[in-house]
Design a protein that fits this description.
The protein has 237 residues and is an alpha/beta fold. The protein has 9 helices and 10 strands.
Length: 237
């Protein structure tokens, strides 16, 4: 299972501190570090100064940000789609693939859409994959579903063979939802593994073992580095 960190989407840290934070997240073993919307100054400095060993820096934005996503020059990009038609999704992914970017499609409100019209929701996934997306990340944006419901839907979509990811808003059930989604076939799990409160003041293990529910933990790669990384992240201000 691969981990996709979005902590830097939410922070007001300086560019220098964001670069330091990206290095700390790299040390935790995450696969993708999302630097947020494609602000030219951050990604320019990242291209010059940032040398990640395990993680890949990723720029994210909507279909309206295509030019800026390409200009960010990150190896991978995440394009957020929400209520877009098939043609918009298809063309956005194709343009990014033509620009030689690895593409993750983040389908916001996917689960609400599935409850209304499963065939339409499934077509969004298939359209993105056929256009060249390497992963379609199903996002539980409203957070209305229980973890077992998440698992059932992810399992149904996984039958298509499309590589899937899962993301949700941070709440008390996010770890359980991540576990159910991973067990059902999501190979990429999105979350904030460095908690941002005016600074990156602590790192957290990405998935929490729930002894009460009898759910087996899914360990973070190189989890033994978590404690030292937490201390390092705590020094970022």
């Amino acid at each position: 299972m691969k981990l996709y960190d979005i902590s830097l989407r939410r922070t007001g840290l300086s560019i220098s501190d964001r670069l330091v934070a990206a290095r700390r997240l790299d040390a935790l073993g995450v696969t993708f570090v999302d630097g947020g919307r494609p602000a030219r100054s951050f990604y320019h400095r990242a291209s010059v100064e940032l040398r990640l060993r395990a993680a890949t820096l990723i720029a994210s934005g909507g279909a309206e940000d295509l030019a800026a996503l390409i200009a960010a020059e990150t190896p991978a990009v995440s394009i957020v789609v929400q209520g877009h038609g098939f043609s918009v999704v298809r063309e956005a992914v194709r343009q990014l693939v033509r620009a030689e970017r690895r593409v993750i499609v983040e389908a916001r409100d996917f689960f609400d859409g599935w409850l209304i019209d499963p065939e339409h929701a499934l077509e969004v996934v298939l359209t993105a994959a056929e256009a060249g997306a390497e992963t379609v990340l199903l996002h539980d944006t409203a957070g209305k579903l229980w973890p077992d419901q998440i698992g059932e839907i992810v399992a149904a979509v996984a039958e298509t063979g499309v590589p899937l990811g899962f993301g949700c808003e941070d709440d008390g059930g996010s770890a359980a939802k991540q576990l159910f989604a991973a067990d059902a076939g999501a190979g990429l799990v999105q979350g904030s593994y460095a908690v941002v409160r005016g600074g990156l003041d602590r790192g957290v293990p990405p998935l929490v073992h729930s002894a009460e529910k009898g759910i087996a933990p899914v360990p973070c790669p190189r989890l033994e580095q978590t404690v030292s990384a937490q201390k390092a992240i705590g020094g970022v201000r």
